[in-house]
Amino acid sequence: MKNLQITMEQFIEEACESIKKEADGGPVLCALSGGVDSSVCAALAQRAIGNDLACIFIDTGFMRKNEAKEVEDLFKNAFSINLACCHSEDRFLDKVKGVTEPEMKRKLIGEEFIRVFEEVALECGPVGSLLQGTIYSDVMESGEDGHKSVKAHHNVGGMPTNIKFKNVLEPLKYLYKDEVRECGRTLGLPERLTNRQPFPGPGLAIRCMGEITKQRLALLREADAIFCEEIEKAGLQNEIQQYFAILPGVMNVGVRNNERCYEEMVALRAISTKDIVTASPVRLPYELLETVTNRITIEVPGINRVVLDLTPKPPGTIEWE
Ligand code: XMP
Question: What local confidence, expressed as pLDDT, does residue 151 receive?
């Protein structure tokens, strides 16, 4: 936070005042992903301008298990936010059909996201301001505010090009991630959301290596949900910054029901990091790993092998693609 002297309540009050001022009575549009930043940003704007805020949630089909429904339930029902949910799974799948190159996946998904956003926005009626959940690390990474550029801001979404916005509102621009989480808690968002781990914009598409199909995404989604469930059952969720499953696209010979099977392999990754620039693998309890492996191979037919990724960053990045 730029001004270290103020409390979170004061920050919220001031941020609401400036949102009101900048929106100037006009409609405000926000792309809500269900991640911490856009969720806190939407909750803040909702407090400031109520129904002048419209949010668009795009289900790309690359979300984790139950994620789309949870976002819809929370914001539409619990927060009464004016939310348009756009179920575009088939459209995104079509776009990446046959594509295996990671950067091409990112590019195609990012572009499609903007097109869908524009279409829904234009259907929603007049648009005034665009609300974005940019936070201080995004500003630094983009090389703004006097910082050296580390990498391009790689959130899916970018800027719609077919809509002319009056201005862009970025109320979280000077908050660090932990302050954004605190802001969310103060606004009454559930811990499950404010503590959410980072999730790449292109989602499971860049954890499903090789060709992305509905069937492969379903395998990955189930394996990932089992891994997350066991970590949470063990109470380790707040000690590990990111934990997830990857489908490397490696087929394995195995035995299922006394017969030969030829199925996918899944990899597990759990890392701890202070700054995202470096990361180390977390030493998960062996019993937990055994339980996860047994559950995945039994409960997810189609996966017959589980491996653990112990690579630090560098040289390995957190994501595999
Ligand atoms: P890497 O894999 O570069 O990831 O070590 C660093 C952090 O960024 C997340 N990540 C992404 N986030 N779009 C995003 O919004 C992306 O394309 C993307 N790729 C990686 C990753 O989960 C980690 O937190």
Answer: 42
pLDDT the model gives residue 221? 98
Given a contact cutoff of 8 angstroms between Cβ atoms, the answer to whether 154 and 191 are in contact is no
pLDDT digits (tens, 9 = 90+) for 173-189: 999 999 999 999 999 99
pLDDT at 148: 56
Question: How many angstroms does the Cα of residue 200 sit away from the middle of ligand 1?
Answer: 5
CA atoms within 13 A on the CB side of 299: 15
CA of 104 to the centre of ligand 1 (A): 15
pLDDT in tens, 60-74: 999 999 999 999 999
Task: Say how many Å lie between the CA of residue 319 and the centre of ligand 1.
Answer: 6
CB atoms within 10 A of CB 85: 18
Question: Which tokens is 59 given?
Answer: 């289900």
pLDDT of residue 154: 46
Q: Closest by alpha carbon to 49, among 109, 115, 131, 108?
A: 131
Tell which residue, 271, 318, 319, has the closest CA to residue 62: 319
Amino acid at site 222: E
What is the reported pTM?
0.91
Residues of the chain with pLDDT under 50: 149-154, 156
**Could you tell me the distance, in angstroms and rounded to a whole number, from the CA of residue 255 to the centre of ligand 1?**
35
Q: Ligand 1 — pocket residues by CB below 6 A?
A: 106, 154-155, 198, 200-202, 242, 276, 313, 317-319
Nearest CA to ligand 1 atom 8: 200
Are residues 266 and 246 in contact, defined by beta-carbon separation less than 8 angstroms? yes
* Residue-level length of the chain: 321
Ligand 1 atom nearest to 241, measured from its CA: 24
Tell me, in angstroms, the distance from the centre of ligand 1 to residue 154's CA.
8
Q: Could you say which DSSP state residue 166 is in?
A: S
pLDDT in the model for residue 158: 64
Q: Which residues contact 267 (CB under 8 A, 6 or more apart)?
A: 245, 246, 247, 248, 306, 307, 308, 309, 320
